[in-house]
Structures are given as structure tokens and as C-alpha cells.
Design brief:
The protein is α+β, with helices and mostly antiparallel strands. The chain has one domain: Jelly Rolls. Helices cover about 25% and strands about 20% of the residues. The protein has 10 helices and 14 strands. It has helices at about 5-15, 20-25, 75-90, 100-115, 120-125, 175-195, 200-205, 280-285, 320, 340-350; strands spanning about 65-70, 90-95, 135-140, 155-160, 215-220, 230-235, 245-250, 255-260, 260-265, 270-275, 295, 305-310, 325, 340. Strand 1 (about 65-70), helix 3 and strand 2 (about 90-95) form a beta-alpha-beta unit. The relative contact order is 0.15. Bound molecules: N-oxalylglycine (OGA) and nickel (II) ion. Nickel (II) ion binds near residues 237, 239 and 293. One of its GO terms (molecular function) is dioxygenase activity. InterPro entries: DIOX_N, IPNS-like_FE2OG_OXY, IPNS-like_sf, Oxoglu/Fe-dep_dioxygenase_dom. This is Fe2OG dioxygenase domain-containing protein.
Length: about 375
């Protein structure tokens, strides 16, 4: 497709302000070319010589650990060890007994679904790419930057935001969920601080990982897709945060890149998914891993998928003044310092193009033969 052609198709799609849901409602039977992703090099099937007969006794296994936070009461060291192992390798784990009420989680997912399933006219006033607006409904934050668009719409909230700016469907549950998730994020940062051998308040207070007091929430809606093999719900990326807490519904589709293969993060009722973001990989000087993940497009027969991701990062004035670099005791530093504003500006301008934003801030290594 010629460049100018692609740009005019992106623009025409964006101008509908109705997102992917609008395409689906209009009955598209084929995925438009702007959403076509190149074939994925990691998606190669396992060769038949490695196939084992299915084991009838096997429990549905997942590589992604499920960590019971209630265990903290009597085995803090064991809990820290579990969190450390996950943060240093997979960069992902799920948590149960996290203290966020199940009804609030259910209501959050229902609210996001309700908003997205309102008529296009009700959603259109919220559709915006203006970064000055704290609440923005949009399809693909990187629509005009990424190599391919993804089969997903998002209501993005930078909280706290004035209540009247939040769509009525999401006013109650979503800000409350974000507040609760922030409390959980702070507890997880304590465990991660201890996992680095530091005092529990280090990452939040000394390193300033939650400075500014805000939280950014991406409320995603993945409509069923007529040709899911041609596109993705979210392209491969790592997160622009210190830490992300994600609530997903029961549909599934989130995958993590583990040893060159995509591994499912299966929905676990009541659980929240936690992952290390790019900024914590930087601050921990590569001790913790910000691992690439993606969402496959929802199959045509499935219900729409809904998720709500809370990104913990510096907000407000602190985002442009505080510089983050590797913790000084973790030598030698592998990254230069960066402000949240500079990091986010680079991340957003680049879009989800399959490359890590962290590479931009990495210092040349002393064992690099080129220097
Ligand atoms: C994200 C993300 C996954 C999902 O918002 O960064 O990876 O399941 N979301 O929606
Ligand atoms: Ni992500």
C-alpha cells in the first residue's frame, strides 16, 4: 500500500471517532489493510518431533506464577523470594488475595464494557488525541506512528481527573479500582524493594516510583475480529511504567514472550496480573526484566475482551523534574538517567514498533567490542 494511501485510510478511520467497535458494528467481514501485521517470527509452531501425547492427569499449567499475597502474614521471606524470581526472569506474575474487592473488579470490567458498547454518538465527544485532556477515548494511541494498527479501542484516564471529564459509565468503579490498585502497587513495590536487598520503602520513597500521586489507566476493549490471524489486539511491547497491574476478563489473549515463544497468561478468576515496566528495569539496572508481551486478536466467535491496566509511573510536575537512573549500589550503571517526561515522549513518538524504548537510554557497555 502506498504511504499516502495508508495515511488517508488511517485518517478516515480516525475521523469516524468510532474505533474498531465502529467497524465491527458496520459489519466488516475482512480486516482492513491498515490493521495487517507482518507474520510473527516467534509464532512458529513446535515441530512434531517434540509433540508429547496429552497427559490426562496434567493440571492446566502456566509458566506464569500465581503468587498468594496472603502468605505475607507468615512467610514474608518466601513471598519476597517468589516475587524476586518472577521479576528477574519472566517479568510477569499474577497475584491472588491482593485485597482489592472482587465486586469492584467485576464492576470495573462491566463499566469498561458498558462504555464501549454505548452508541458511537455517546462516545464520540470523548474521542481525542489531545494530551492536555486527562480522559481520552481513542483507537491505538500510536495509530499514526506504529507500523500497523491493532484491533483495539482504549479509554485512557490520567487519574485523578475531574469527575465530569470521565464518561458516566466509568465514573464510579474505574477511579475506585485505580485507587485500590495503587495501594496494591505500593505494597508490591515494598516486596520488590526487599527483593533488591533494600529497605521496604526504597522504591516508592527514595527512588520516587510513585511521585506525583497519580495513576494512568488504560481501559481496553478488544472486539471480536473476523480474521484474527491477520492482526493483533495489542502489538508486541514492554510497558512505559515502573510497574503495571492489569485486570483482565475471562476471554484470554494476553501472551508473554518467554525464551522466544509466546506463552499465555491465562485468566485466573479474582487474580490481577502484575508486570515489571521499562522504568523499573532501568532503575534496577537490569536486575528486573520488563518483558515483551502482546494480545492476540479476539476470535470471531468469542465475546469482546475487556481489560484495565494501571500504569504506575511519576505524574504531574515531578515527571519532568525528577531524573531516574540505576540504583547506585547496582554497579556499573547500564543506563543514563532520564525523566519520565523524556521517556514517555520517546515511547509515544516511537509507537509499538517491536523495539524496546530502553535501548535508547542504555550506556555503551565496556565489553562492547565496538568501543
Ligand atoms: C497494556 C497491555 C494487555 C491487556 O495495556 O500495556 O499490555 O491484556 N495490556 O490488555
Ligand atoms: Ni503492556
Amino acid at each position: 500500500m502506498a504511504c499516502s494511501d495508508r495515511l488517508s485510510q488511517l485518517k478516515a478511520f480516525d475521523d469516524t471517532k468510532a474505533g474498531v467497535k465502529g467497524l465491527v458494528d458496520a459489519g466488516v467481514a475482512a480486516v482492513p489493510p491498515i490493521f495487517h501485521h507482518p507474520p510473527d517470527p516467534h509464532a512458529a509452531p513446535v515441530p512434531p518431533i517434540f509433540h508429547h501425547p496429552p497427559d490426562p492427569h496434567a493440571a492446566p499449567a502456566s509458566a506464569i506464577p500465581v503468587v498468594d499475597l496472603a502468605a505475607a502474614a507468615n512467610d514474608r521471606a518466601g513471598l519476597v523470594a517468589q516475587v524476586r524470581a518472577a521479576a528477574e526472569t519472566l517479568g510477569f506474575f499474577q497475584v491472588v488475595n491482593h485485597g482489592v474487592p472482587a465486586e469492584l473488579l467485576a464492576e470495573t470490567l462491566a463499566s469498561v464494557k458498558r462504555f464501549n458498547e454505548e452508541p458511537a454518538e455517546a462516545k464520540r465527544p470523548y474521542y481525542s488525541r489531545d494530551p492536555a485532556r486527562r480522559v481520552r477515548y481513542q483507537s491505538n494511541f500510536d495509530l499514526f506512528h506504529a507500523p500497523a494498527a491493532s484491533w483495539r479501542d482504549t479509554l485512557f484516564l490520567e487519574l485523578p481527573a475531574p469527575e465530569e471529564e470521565i464518561p458516566p459509565a466509568c465514573r464510579g468503579a474505574v477511579p475506585e479500582y485505580a485507587r485500590e490498585a495503587r495501594g496494591l502497587g505500593a505494597r508490591l513495590l515494598e516486596l520488590l524493594s526487599e527483593a533488591l536487598g533494600l529497605h521496604a520503602r526504597y522504591l516508592e520513597h527514595d527512588a520516587g516510583c510513585l511521585d506525583g500521586g497519580g495513576v494512568a489507566v488504560g481501559c481496553h476493549y478488544y472486539p471480536p475480529c473476523p480474521e484474527p490471524h491477520l492482526t493483533l489486539g495489542t502489538a508486541k511491547h514492554s510497558d512505559p511504567s515502573f510497574l503495571t497491574v492489569l485486570l483482565q476478563d475471562g476471554v484470554g489473549g494476553l501472551q508473554v514472550l518467554v525464551g522466544g515463544r509466546w506463552v499465555d497468561v491465562p485468566p485466573v478468576p479474582g487474580a490481577l496480573v502484575v508486570n515489571i515496566g521499562d522504568l523499573l528495569q532501568l532503575v534496577s539496572n537490569d536486575r528486573f526484566k520488563s518483558v515483551e508481551h502482546r494480545v492476540v486478536a479476539t476470535s470471531p466467535a468469542a465475546a469482546a475482551r475487556v481489560s484495565a491496566a494501571c500504569f504506575f509511573r511519576t505524574t504531574g510536575a515531578a515527571a519532568s523534574t525528577r531524573a531516574y537512573g540505576p540504583i547506585t549500589t547496582l554497579k556499573p550503571p547500564r543506563y543514563r538517567s532520564v525523566t519520565m517526561a523524556e521517556f514517555l515522549g520517546y515511547y509515544k513518538g516511537k509507537g509499538l514498533d517491536g523495539r524496546s524504548a530502553l535501548d535508547r537510554f542504555r550506556l555503551p557497555s565496556s565489553d562492547d567490542p565496538c568501543i
